TrEMBL record:
Alphabetized InterPro entries for the sequence: Auxin_Ser/Thr_Kinase (IPR052422), Leu-rich_rpt (IPR001611), Leu-rich_rpt_typical-subtyp (IPR003591), LRR_dom_sf (IPR032675), LRR_N_plant-typ (IPR013210)
Topological type in the membrane: Single-pass membrane protein
Superkingdom of the organism of origin: Eukaryota
Protein name: Receptor-like kinase TMK3
Biased composition (Low complexity): 376-408
Signal sequence extent: 1-24
Glycoprotein keyword on record: yes
Entry GO CC: membrane
Gene3D superfamilies per the UniProt record, alphabetical: Ribonuclease Inhibitor
Region Disordered, residue ranges: 373-408
Domain Leucine-rich repeat-containing N-terminal plant-type per the UniProt entry, residue ranges: 44-65, 255-293
GO molecular function: kinase activity
C-alpha cells in the first residue's frame, strides 16, 4: 500500500482543494480494489499484478492519470486466462482497454467509462456481453471483438450510443439475424472500418451503405446476405461478395421473382434457414419451399417453419402463384388484400398462425383454409368458398392436409 499512499500524498500536494483531494483518494482506493479484483480473477496474472499489494499504477500494462486514476489497461497477448470481475466497471476514467489475444473467458463485464475510446476484446473466449453493452461508452472510437465464441446475438443497434465510432470490427463474432436497416446504417456517421465477415447476418443490405462518405474499409463476406450488392466507391476496400448469397456478383437489380421472394423473406425477418437457401438470382433453382413450373414460381409452401413476422404483399408479385401454404407458423398481422388479385391462385392455407383482420375477397375458385388458432381472424371471407375451419379440427392434421394438397 506504500505506493498507493504516496500517490495520495502527491495528489494532495498538487491540489489546493480539499474536496478534490478527497475525491482523488476515493478514486485511488477503488482503483486498487478493482485492479486487485482483476488480478485475483485472472488465472495467470502478469507477475507484477500480485493480488492486493503494490501501486496498481506501476503494474505492467496499467497507465494512470496524474491523480492516480487508471486510464489505460493494455494486456494484449499476455497469455492470460480466467475471467474479468464486474468491478472493472468502477474504472470510470478508462480511455483504452486492450485485452486482445488472450484466453479470457466468461462474461465481458459492464464498462462505465465515459472517456473510453478504444476497446479491444478480439481473440478471447468470452461467452457473454453485458446488458448495457455500448450504452455506457459514448466516446468509443474503436471496437474490435473478432473471433469471440459468443452465443448468437443481433447486430447491436446500441452502436448509436457511440456516435464517434470509427472502427467496428466484429468478424466471426456470432452476430445473427438481419443486416441493419437503412435507418440504422444512416446513423453510423463516423464509421470508417466495418468488418462483419463470418457471421450469420441475413437479408438484403441497404443500398445506402455504398454511399456512406466516411467508409474506407468494409468486409461482409461469409455471412448469409442476399439481394443486390451495394455499389461502393473504388476508394473503399470492400470484401463483400464472397461467401454470401447475393443475386449477382456485381451491383445491379435482382430478377423480379427473386426480388418478390426476398420481400416475402423480409416480412418474416429473414430467418436463417431461408437465407441459407434463398441465394442467387434464380428462385427456381431449388429454393426451400419454392416450386416452379416453366421458370415461374407456382407454389410457395412453408408449412411448420416456425416463421414469425408478417405476410408481405409482395407475394402478389409472384404472378404465376397457384398455391400458398404458410400453415403452422407464428405469423401475425393481416393477410394482404393484394393476394386476392393473383390470377392463377387456387389454394391458400394459413391455418395455425396468429393472424388478425379480415380475409381478402378471394375468388370463389380459391380454396382458403384459415382460422385454426387464429381466433381474431375475422370470418368474413368475401365470395370465396373457403373451407374456413371452425377451430374444431385437429391442428396436427391440418398441416398434413395442406401438404397433401400442395403435393398434388
Ligand atoms: C472463429 O472463431 C473461433 C473461435 O471463437 C475460431 O476457432 C475459428 O477458427 C474462427 N473462424 C474463422 C473463420 O476465423
Ligand atoms: C481503425 O482501423 C484502421 C484500419 O482500417 C487502422 O489503421 C486504425 O489504426 C484503426 N483505428 C483505431 C483507433 O484503432
Ligand atoms: C451460424 O448459425 C449456425 C446455426 O445456428 C451455427 O452453427 C454457426 O456456427 C453460425 N455461424 C457463425 C459464423 O456464427
Ligand atoms: C439514429 O440515432 C438517433 C439518436 O442519435 C435515434 O434517435 C434514432 O432512433 C436512430 N435511428 C434508428 C433508425 O435507429
Ligand atoms: C427455421 O429456423 C427457425 C429458427 O430460426 C426454427 O425455429 C425452425 O424450426 C426452422 N425451420 C425449419 C423447417 O427448419
Ligand atoms: C421458434 O422460434 C422461436 C424464436 O424465433 C424460438 O424461441 C423457438 O425455440 C422456435 N421453436 C422451434 C420448435 O424451433
Ligand atoms: C411489385 O413489384 C414492383 C416492381 O418491382 C414493385 O414496385 C412493387 O412494390 C411490388 N409490389 C409489392 C406489393 O411489393
Amino acid at each position: 500500500m506504500g505506493m498507493e499512499i504516496k500517490h495520495f500524498q502527491i495528489t494532495l500536494l498538487l491540489s489546493c482543494c480539499l474536496a478534490a483531494a478527497a475525491a482523488a483518494g476515493i478514486g485511488s482506493s477503488s482503483v486498487a480494489d478493482a485492479i486487485a479484483d482483476v488480478a485475483r480473477s485472472l488465472a495467470r496474472p502478469p507477475s507484477t499484478w500480485t493480488a492486493g499489494g503494490g501501486d496498481a499504477c506501476s503494474f505492467k500494462g496499467v497507465t494512470c492519470s496524474p491523480s492516480g486514476r487508471v486510464t489505460a489497461i493494455d494486456l494484449a497477448g499476455q497469455g492470460l486466462a480466467g475471467t474479468l470481475p464486474s468491478s472493472l466497471s468502477s474504472l470510470t476514467a478508462l480511455e483504452s482497454l486492450q485485452l486482445q489475444g488472450n484466453a479470457l473467458s466468461g462474461a465481458v463485464p459492464p464498462l462505465r467509462a465515459p472517456s473510453l475510446t478504444r476497446l479491444s476484446l478480439e481473440g478471447n473466449a468470452f461467452t457473454s456481453l453485458p446488458e448495457d453493452f455500448l450504452r455506457a461508452t459514448p466516446a468509443l472510437r474503436s471496437l474490435s471483438m473478432d473471433g469471440l465464441p459468443l452465443p448468437p446475438w443481433p447486430f447491436p443497434d446500441a452502436i448509436f450510443s457511440c456516435p464517434a465510432l470509427h472502427n467496428f470490427s466484429a468478424s466471426n463474432a456470432s452476430i445473427a439475424g438481419r443486416f441493419p436497416a437503412a435507418g440504422v446504417v444512416a446513423n453510423l456517421t463516423s464509421i470508417r472500418t466495418l468488418r462483419l465477415s463470418h457471421n450469420n447476418l441475413t437479408g438484403v443490405i441497404p443500398m445506402s451503405l455504398g454511399r456512406m462518405a466516411s467508409l474506407t474499409d468494409i468486409s461482409l463476406s461469409y455471412s448469409h446476405l442476399q439481394g443486390p450488392v451495394p455499389a461502393f466507391s473504388p476508394a473503399v476496400a470492400a470484401d463483400v461478395v464472397a461467401g454470401n448469397g447475393f443475386c449477382l456478383d456485381a451491383p445491379g437489380p435482382c430478377d423480379a421473382q427473386v426480388s418478390a421472394l426476398l420481400q416475402v423473406a423480409e416480412g418474416f425477418g429473414y430467418p436463417l434457414n431461408l437465407s441459407r437457401s434463398w441465394t442467387g438470382n434464380d428462385a427456381c433453382s431449388g429454393w426451400l419451399g419454392v416450386i416452379c413450373d416453366a421458370s415461374e414460381v407456382t407454389i410457395l409452401g412453408l408449412t411448420n417453419y416456425n416463421l414469425s413476422g408478417t405476410i408481405s404483399p409482395a407475394i402478389a408479385n409472384l404472378t404465376g402463384l397457384k398455391k400458398l401454404d404458410l400453415a403452422g407458423n407464428r405469423l401475425t398481422g393481416e393477410i394482404p388484400d393484394a393476394l386476392a388479385a393473383l390470377p392463377s391462385l387456387s389454394l391458400v392455407d394459413v391455418r395455425n398462425n396468429r393472424l388478425t383482420g379480415k380475409l381478402p375477397k378471394f375468388r370463389a375458385s380459391v380454396d382458403v383454409s384459415a382460422e385454426v388458432n387464429s381466433p381474431s381472424l375475422g370470418s368474413h371471407h368475401g365470395s370465396g368458398q373457403g373451407s374456413l375451419d371452425d377451430g374444431s379440427s385437429q391442428s396436427s392434421d391440418s398441416a398434413a392436409d395442406a401438404s397433401s394438397k400442395l403435393s398434388a
